[in-house]
Amino acid sequence: MPPKSQAPGQPTISSFFTKKAANQAPCAPSASASRSPSGAASPPYAAATSSTLGRRQTNGDHIRSDDEDEPPIKRVRPPTAPSKPSSSSRDRVEQWRFTPRSKQAALDESTEELPLPTSSQRSAHEEERHNTFRKKLLGDANPIVKWDQAAKAAERDEGGDGADEDGEGGADEDEDESQDKQEGSSNLHRFASSTAIRSGSSKGKGKNAQPSSSKVKYTPLELQVLDLRAKHPDVLLLFEVGYKFIAYEEDAVNASKELNVMCFPKQNMRIASIPVHRLHIHARRLIKAGYKVGVVRQTETRALKAASSNSSKPFTRSLTELYTASTWVEDLETVGGDESGMENPVAQNSLVALVEKMEGSDERVSIGLIAVQAATGAVVYDQFMDSSMRSELETRLAHLQPAELLLPPLGKLSKSTEKLIRYLAGNPSTSSSVGIASTRLRVERTESVLTYNEAFNRVTSFYEEAGQTGMQDVDMADGEGSDPASSSKQRSVIDDASAGATIATVMKLPPLTVQALAACISHLRSFGLASMFKVTGNFVSFQARSEMLLSTGTLHNLELFATTEGTYKGSLCWLLDKCKTIFGKRTLRRWIARPLTDVKRLEERMDAVSEMLEGKDPLLSKVPELLTKQPDLEKGLARMLYGRATTNEVATILLALNRITHQFEPVTHPGDVGLKSSLLNESIAALPRARSVIKTALQEFNVSAARKGEKENLFPEDKFPELQDEKDQISLVEADLEEHLIDLRKQLKRPTLQYATVSGIDYLVEVRVGDAKKVPADWLRISATKSVVRFHTPEIIAHIKRRDQHRERLEAKAKEAFSTFLDELCEHSTVLRNTISALGNLDALTSLASVAALPGYTRPVFVPESGGDVLHLTGLRHPMSEALRDDYVPNDIQLGNDGQKGLVLTGANMGGKSSTVRAIALCVVLAQVGCFVPASEARLSIRDAVLTRMGASDELAKGRSTFMVEAEEAAEILRVATSRSLVILDELGRGTSTFDGQAIASSVLSYLMTRETHRQPTTLFITHYTSLCTLAERLSGVRNMHMAFVERANPVDGEKEVVFLYQLREGPASSSFGIHCAALAGLPRAMLEVATERAEKLKAETERRMRSKRNKAARRALKVVFGKGDGEELEMLKRAALKLGVIEMEGERES
């Protein structure tokens, strides 16, 4: 049906897009596609259907029969001369004219060859749908598909490729592309070969006739993709194309697998696409899977590109964002949300850089370390010596929770270090129980190892440049410049005066740490995050003298951050965490990981918890209200420092800080706050100090515009006058458009004419269908309904073009102004960080006060160092077990009286031995965190370490058997334990034979209890070996205790049963009741009877042998002492020895 309401010679949108197709006959035969692959002629309806589809796709002037508006069509400048009307409409009418025919004529016509439609008659949508469906059915290896691909390549060589010059579809095409790929196609005639095959007798001759391969011709966009992928081979790149981000080739396959999106071929490459507004959601999933993700954005806008000299070239693109698990800082959420999409909002997910130096051999090395937590900007440094076990390195990694390691090239680290890294990187479930990231640990390698001089020069150059210029990051290592508005700026807080002091601070770092720092700076520059190193106040030493360093084994065995099953619920952190803010949770986690050893700081924290628990001062009632609904201010401040914060995030941060700074009145001195606790006074006094900074920022910042994302309206006119200049230019253009409207009213004789806006296209001139033929021929028809036709005049097109150019200039200048505002705000980052840190301390203290309010918790009393080594706990309970179940049996433990420093604990299996010693260790940790403990009374000495060796398991990935693990852990404890340490050894020696195990266990116990006084720790030794109980009786300062039980007859069947009382009692246990435990496990009764009988025999035999050994030793001693006496005197001494029990009577007389 021909289009309605079209004036002769009037240009339309579709006429510009289908000019080439309009000059071609609608049903012209194609020499390259006339038959199906089988050689049979295509039926008449196949050609008709294809012709119909092709006509509907290319005829853009058709007006719908209903009142709905047509979808928006891309505006194109009209040609200078009107195009002539095409004769294709008359041809189509003739084609579809119905003519009656006889039956024989119809049969004759059906046997004639009818041409298949050519590729030029199909739309891009239909072409891709056919290709997808064909490959689904036949596969890429099918000969028909191969022939068709080769034929298309030959057509491209002859200039038949009808692709866009840019290789990019329009926005509208991209919008529905993925859906079209999934729908497929049912037009099976698309399987036709592009070469005509003669039907008849030539059977099978075409199988070996493979078409000659031709060189692939890439579109300009594909060439861009190939270039950027070659520059970043280790990055999964997502390219901004229209309204989507697209991954190509192998990246598309990986994205399809991880994101569950479709991967399909397009032109010369495989692609997978995601919507623009879902970028961060999908990028987060790729990062969690272990990929390094890069975002390639268009660095040109359409309006400015159209006005430039390279308007016919593809959009320039560059890598503007780069992400890994340790550098993901793109989310700012409150506690109520799932922060950043990662499992644990308190997890550090840090980047740890290591540098190693051999100290004579692989056994001992020096290691330099830099750990960066991008979410908060915290930087931790350390240099330490480590043994062949690399226990010191493993402990630090457990505390720092790395998501990514930055290591020297392969071969530059020792074998022991590489083995540990492979173990941690390959066993996420193992490492998660001690705090390392639960996802697979990512490992990056540097290109080379810098010497100390090279590293020092690089670091000092970085700080000098930062101090002089307020340095920006390099452009994502593409080697090409990018648009300043799209590049991430480095925020500098170092001025010329402080640059020297900053370099002096860096010069104090240990040499290997400086080398690691240089590697970190180079690495994070490509991510736009190097600015965190400019705030040297963020640097913290890992080894603090006033804090306890808990080993990896202790973190795991005491379940501080995760249970042995790897769950958060049931851990100590789960019990203590009542925080309301994310940065408060981070503070509490740091306190748990590093308990205090400084009595003064510990008492200050305890005083603060006690005062909050009492809650008498009305000033403290404001704190809980202040903590509610706070965003992650630590991460927000870091994002501002990196230049990543959005306008909405900045508004959220400023309003939150404004609320914080106005909750309490400013004071000159912390003591003026008026509370008893000095720590509370300091924390509250720090909150209002940023009030003037926030007040000034809010006066210059339009919060309502920031919520809408309107950067051009954020600031007053006098702050950034260049923004107002562009706004004035836009107003002038809009005034010109209004003047043009007056002329249009006169021309159309419609005094009330107004511009219309439809589907985002504004300044449309609506003309009734009956008057559409009267408009000038140079008016551009945009869309139509049943009642009106909409146009753009040449003047409107010119004005809109000018307006869009000014709008894009305004957008670029607004981005620059917003960046400058963030620079000014980040100059006060120190006072802002102190405010956030003070509120985090208040949140953590409030959480500890909530735990202290639980029934049965008491404030521990710390004994000064001069008072000896004391461990007195009355009514002790296991904190997590009590929280999970209420019926926990309390116990009492007293060590330190009369020089007692050791405890050998025996008892039945499942009698509660391990749980009791864990409860003791947890109370020590809780007390030195600054929390009340689950006991009715607690008197404790300050401990410098809690060292544990518990459980039995092998570590095959490290090449260590069960006993080797036990022995190495025990050796490490013996090496580092001091007189102020608490040592827990649980069933040492059970990983080897009974005699070897007893020998090792007794030797370790004896060594710990007989070493020098200044190295003799408080030791809790759990064992089933009765020989250790005997040894404990001979050692000074060691006592025997056991877990109580009761043996009784079952009232039902009379069988003996054991009831566990879970109470500590003096003396050794008489039995371990292993067979009873086996019965509880469900072993067969007959087998248990045999086991009981054999156990009795073995016990009797062992007792006989022990008795015989004692008798022989006593006789030898008597002979040595009284060997010269007469027989009567010797016989008298024997009788006395028998009476005193020195020797025992036996059935056989020994000479």
UniProtKB/TrEMBL annotation:
Residues 7-17, 192-202 have a biased composition (Polar residues). Coiled coil: none annotated. Residues 160-178 have a biased composition (Acidic residues). Residues 21-51 have a biased composition (Low complexity). Residues 1-215, 470-493 are annotated as: Disordered. InterPro entries: DNA_mismatch_repair_MutS-lik_N, DNA_mismatch_repair_MutS_C, DNA_mismatch_repair_MutS_clamp, DNA_mismatch_repair_MutS_core, DNA_mismatch_repair_MutS_N, DNA_mismatch_repair_MutS_sf, DNA_mmatch_repair_MutS_con_dom, MutS. It is found in: Nucleus. Pfam families: MutS_I (PF01624), MutS_II (PF05188), MutS_III (PF05192), MutS_IV (PF05190), MutS_V (PF00488). PROSITE patterns: DNA_MISMATCH_REPAIR_2. Belongs to the DNA mismatch repair MutS family. MSH3 subfamily. PANTHER family: DNA MISMATCH REPAIR PROTEIN MSH1, MITOCHONDRIAL, DNA MISMATCH REPAIR PROTEIN MUTS FAMILY MEMBER. Heterodimer consisting of MSH2-MSH3 (MutS beta). Forms a ternary complex with MutL alpha (MLH1-PMS1). NCBIfam families: PRK05399.1 (NF003810). Component of the post-replicative DNA mismatch repair system (MMR). Heterodimerizes with MSH2 to form MutS beta, which binds to DNA mismatches thereby initiating DNA repair. MSH3 provides substrate-binding and substrate specificity to the complex. When bound, the MutS beta heterodimer bends the DNA helix and shields approximately 20 base pairs. Acts mainly to repair insertion-deletion loops (IDLs) from 2 to 13 nucleotides in size, but can also repair base-base and single insertion-deletion mismatches that occur during replication. This is DNA mismatch repair protein MSH3.
